[in-house]
Amino acid sequence: MSRPFRHLLDIESLTRGEILTILGLAQKMWEVSERSVKKVPTLRGKTIVGLFLEASTRTRSSFELAGKRLSADVINISGSGSSTSKGETLLDTVKNLDAMSPDVIVLRHSSSGAPHFIASRVRCAVVNAGDGTHEHPTQALLDCATMMKHKGSLEGKTVAIVGDVAHSRVARSNIHALTKLGANVRVAGPRTLMPVDIGAMGATVFERVEPAITDADVVMVLRLQSERQEAGLIPNTREYSRYFGVNSRNIELAKPDAIVMHPGPINRGVELEPELADGSRSVILEQVTYGVAVRMAVLYLVAGGTLDEG
Ligand code: CP
Asked: Which domains does the chain carry?
């Protein structure tokens, strides 16, 4: 059997078939997490290094759980606890880790392109756990898995992505994934937080939330990423919330069975009303649950797993 995935660096370079392959495998992995003994020997003897040089709760812990549920040995390194804090370059850090013969390095980094840069310079597989404002491929995969659980095929479904699109690697990966899966993607947010090239990616751009979410099947709310913003992109968070927040009033414009998603962490009361985040339309914690299954599938594939053995 040929090895189907050498690395997972982005969604843009995946085909629709490859996306569906990962999602199909994730469904099988989901079943492992439903068992009372949540462990299979699939990756016994394999080593996974998580190198998280930017903060993370969900991605980091779910990659670690995913590796452990497949019986791999997993270690995690964070920026403050690593020699990058003493000035070591990213390349030196990953070459030193690669010298210890891991099978997979999972990298989160604040620079767009960092996983691509290291992938051609190490022997092990590299998985992008979020790079700058570029892509967050496993987030888009877990988002698609969650949407498909609720909506079935995404062909012809309308997904509205609302908020700080300019700084969102989640939005970029989702637009690539959703357009490949046949969904109609709308994006909405202030002009200052909307990349100029976003229409070319296949999304329809709205300057107001209401028309974007009207009759949508899925409303995906993005975090306002204050840490990545220059000053002055929005007047203040109260005004942002008033004009671009998703709340129990404007959600009524979406389809009656529309689901509400958010990649987390949530700025409660800024981009999303707390009652909606915790309400019956919300699938936010299901997204987190799918994160483990999707990351199990990805780790299995890049660690050399074949589809016959899956
Ligand atoms: N969604 C997401 O990437 O969350 P974390 O930053 O907590 O990993």
From this structure: 16-135+289-302 (3.40.50.1370), 137-284 (3.40.50.1370)
